[in-house]
Write a structure and sequence with these properties.
Blueprint (H helix, E strand, L loop, with lengths): L1 H34 L3 E5 L6 H12 L10 E5 L6 H9 L7 E4 L7 H4 L12 E5 L5 E6 L7 H6 L2 E4 L6 H13 L3 E4 L4 H10 L5 E6 H7 L1 H5 L3 E7 L20 H16 L3 E3 L5 H15 L2 H9 L7 E2 H12 L3 H12 L2
Parallel strand pairs: 1-2, 1-3, 6-7
Antiparallel strand pairs: 3-10, 4-10, 4-11, 5-8, 5-9
Length: 345
Amino acid sequence: MRAGFRMLLGAALLFGGQISQVAEARAQALADFFKAQPFTILVGYPPGAGYDMYARLLARHMGQYLPGAPKIIVQNMPGAGSLTMANHLYNNAKQDGSTIGTFSRGITMLPIVDSAGVRYDPLKFNWIGSPSGEVSVAISWHDSGIKTFEDLQTRGMTAATSGPASDGNIYGRVLNAILGTKIKTVTGYQGSAESMLAIERKEVEGATAISYASLLTAKKDWLDNKRINILVQHTLKAREDLKGVPAILDFAKTDDDRRVLEVVFARQSIGYPYAAPPGVPADRLAAIRSAFDATLKNPEFIADSAKASALIDGVTGAEIQALLEKIYSSPPAIIERAKAAMQAD
């Protein structure tokens, strides 16, 4: 019995040692791969934009968590609202795990709205995660007479935004079509800074979609001094620091209304998405995801993000994938209604 036990124990130790050697060999192979070349983050916008800022923050810290601690390069590839880069990442980028990219959250939903020029399947990207979700808010100037979301339904509001494809314009159409608001969007303002200046000058009464992070950064005095009314949060998950401000889903009157709004506003939960192309080997993809998640918890990364007024409340790749699968499995009638609302005049 003792001899048999010793034989079994010896076999178990030998097998365990072999497993350990295989694991060590795989870890070394990963380290050798990442160490052999720079790791590239493609950004679908020019330098200086919010997406670029997050990419450079990640590049500063993420390398230490990747096997082999490679150098990370940020490469800007602007064009067509980041569609150019998304198409490139899906079709032309190396599928070996050496390249990931970040592009507009709207890219994830673009096939629903307008598939012209789309050469990717959102469900087949390898999603890495997002450093933060995004919450846009509808606001009105303090003395405009518009104090609640219900006021948008009864008396309406003139709202500043940049152009036809902007969130402000699209969300305004959706609110009018689905929730019966009377928003009149005024386009032509170059970005949120000009839109906020127009509000302050009383050229318009408010805005349908302003990034809450932008307000915290650029117009915190508006919040502190109650210069604006925050009417609604455009998000599937309300922020804790905006207690008392209703979320857009709160105004859905029917289950179908709610589903349509989920299709439209799901992009907010995705925030600033990062993806790898299809075909990346599973072990390398797992290493990238692990490094990304670890970076978001790094104290130095969090401190640098705070200095840049960048919100960090990480979204995992699995969460992005699950959300997209839910949206793209919506009934055709819901998809068509959402599409019609986003394209309404």
